[in-house]
Each structure stands twice: as structure tokens, then as C-alpha cells.
Amino acid sequence: MTFLGLTAEMLARIQFGFTVSFHFVFPAFSIGTACYLATLNALWLWKRDPAYLRLFDYWKTIFAVAFAMGVVSGIVMSYQFGTNWAVLSEKAGAIIGPLMGYEVLTAFFLEAGFLGIMLFGRKRVGDGLHMVAVCMVALGTLISATWITSANSWLHTPAGFTRDTAGHFLPADWWAIIFNPSFPYRVTHTVLAALLTTSFVIGGVGAFHLLKNANNRQGRIMFSMAMWMAVVVTPIQIFAGDQHGLNTLEHQPQKIAAIEGDYETHENGMPLILFGIPDDDAEETHAAVEIPRLGSVILRHSWDKTIRGLKEWPRDERPPALPVFFTFRIMVAIGFLMLAIGLWSVYARYRGRFYENRLLQKVVIAASPSGFIAVLAGWYTTEIGRQPYTVYGLLRTSDSLSPVSAPAVGASLIAFILVYFAVFGAGVFYLLKLMRRPPETGDDHDLKEGPLRSSGITPGPGEAAEGESR
Asked: Which of 218, 247, 309, 457 is deepest in the core (most CB within 10 A)?
């Protein structure tokens, strides 16, 4: 039985992919924003410059809204493991369940426990403990990313387990499970992506307010800090991505073959296909634009090392080449775009025209959502490239599905689409509204009022004067 021509398996995959796509952007933004808030608060305590405090108050409201949407959107996914992927939960639950549980017990409780102090507690607990709370919230977001990435990495590179006669995955070595072969590369790549994503949002907001008022000091600070982040972190991310690719070649070679869009095995060096249209049925990439041997240089760091093509594996063990081919190139193109913008900002600083370069500011505004696009493109590359398995090489996706009908999954998918676009569309609209509001520009009255009050969130008693410089 199908629904709109799609099987229950495909509909369940689309449903999980849709909900994760909505969820993923909020934690990615929250990780970077929490780290940015910790930096701003530390600068305020160090320099006692009210500009940093105003920016802290400005961004903590945005963080609170994004954090709440991330929590709400993440709850739905856990239910899908029971409704749509019950067999996966049964087979791998002894490993995946504890890893996800550790995320709740450590990261979520840490974030939730200190979030109220971070938002409203400066005057109640003092600057020192308030700084601890801000750091704990930031640490909580990083710990959360660590556990979730560990669970996801184990599905790609399973290790440290045994299997019983019924095919259940049972933990044998938790160190090997948590620190599975792809985990160090995946968590590094994910956290750096979150930092870059947030930095371009902050840079875009700063540029937006600089175009309205070139003398807005808070806008200058946002723009400057974001561009320094782009300059420093983007090259590190490109290097981390290269190392992640080498790790993927070792453990998931057919995924790399699909990413490269190469069906043939090259004994004396694989070309780099810059553009083309992979065709799994014909087993070739049409209209390929390629550079000889460069693929081997990138993947093997050698001109003539052998790289296996997709034809080396049976058709039912290959991931679909077309989507991962393009999503990977979107991710890489955005990474180099970020690097180019960062280098442009360095040149503008050198010329003494950094804050006056309106073209640069407009480009940064246009690029402000690019990090989210890159994060999603990278995630699609990773997860579609894992097919046809849920636990790579051991448990097929078709064998992980609950006994559900296509119409039932299709109806719930339509409901998710309608509700998510309505609820989270409104949330994103409100976030953009907050970002359009200019940061406070400078008197004690602004500090006393604070952005939470102007956003409709009223601080508790004693909070009104929390921004006053002491």
C-alpha cells in the first residue's frame, strides 16, 4: 500500500527528515549564541563597558526564544522512534537509548537549571555566580551536541557492541561506543558549523543596523566580532571537513563514491567532478565537468592512489548519488563563500574601510542564513549517504520500520508540515522581529529598561536596574 505513490518506509524517512530539519537549525543556533553570550558577559565583567552588557541583554532574549523552539521541536523526534521506527528502537535501543538519556540527564538539566539565572538573575546572585550560570548554559549546549552526535555517529560507525541471537545490539564497551571511529570528526565538524552559523547571523544583524546607523556602537561590535570569527573558524572548519572526509572514506567508502558522483574505479587517480548529473540507473554522471586526478589528491593526498567507484558495490548497497552529490557541493560552496567574506573583511580592515564598506555589509546580510543552509546540506549528505542502512552495514532501513501503513504515515506527515510551518514559522518571524529592533544605544534609562521588557518579557523584581554599571 502506498500514499501518493510513496511507500511507508519512504514516508517515514521523509517525516523524520522534515522534523529533524526544523529541529536542527535551532540547536545549531543555540550552541553558537550561548557561547557568544558567555563571551559578551566576560567582556562586560572585564571592561565594564556598557555596550557589551546591552548586547548581552539583546541576544539573551533571542537565545531564550530559539532555545525554547529547539526544545519543543526536539520532543517530537523521540516519539517517532516508537511510532515509525520501533524495530530500530528494539534492536539498537540498548545503545541509542542510554546515549540520548545521558543527553537529558546532563545537558538538558544543566541548561534548564541555569537558564533562569542567566536570563533574570544577575542582581539576585551577583556578577560572579551569574557568569557561572551563563557558562553552564553554554557548556550544556556543547554537552548536548556531544551526546547526540555520539549517538548519531554510532549509527554510522558502530563499535563496542555484541549481538544476541535475535539480532539485538548490546553494549560491550561504552568507551568504544561513545568514542566510535567517526565521533571525534563529526562532533568537531558539527560544533564548528554551529559557531559559524551563529557568527554569520550576528554579523548580518550587526550589518543591518550599521546600514541604518553607521555609528551604532553595538552594531559595530557585532559586525566586527562575527567577521573575526569567520576569519579564524572557517579555515579550521575546512580542515576539519577534510579530515572527516578521510574518515568517511575509510569507514563508508560507498558514501564517498556517491558524493563524488563516480561510478568507475580509478587505479591511477580519480578525477574531481565539479559538476554533473549522477544517474544511478545508467551508472554514470552526465555532463560531468572534472579535473583529472584532483579527487585522489583530496581524498588520498596522492596523485595516483586507487579510489573505488560505486560499481564496486551491489546496487542494493549503494546510497542514492544524486542528492548527496549536490548537497555536499552546496555545503562546500558555502564554506568557501564564508572564507571569502572573512578574507574580504580583513582587507577592508586593512584599508580602514571596514565599518564604512556598505557593499560588504550587504553581502554579509545576504549570507546571514547561509550557515543554516550549509548545516542542513551537510546533514542531508551524511544521512542520505548512510542508506540503505540505519545501523551502517548491519541493519537495513527497510528492516527498521514499524508495522505502519503508508496512509497513516502520510496523514501524520501532512499534519506535521501544517503545524510546523504555522508554529515555527511564527517563532522565526518573532526572532526576525527581535533582530530588526536596534540594540540600545546608550543612556542609563536604556540599561534600566533592558530588551526583555521592550520585547514583552517583564523581568522580576529587582531586575530593572540589572544593567546599571557599578
From this structure: 218
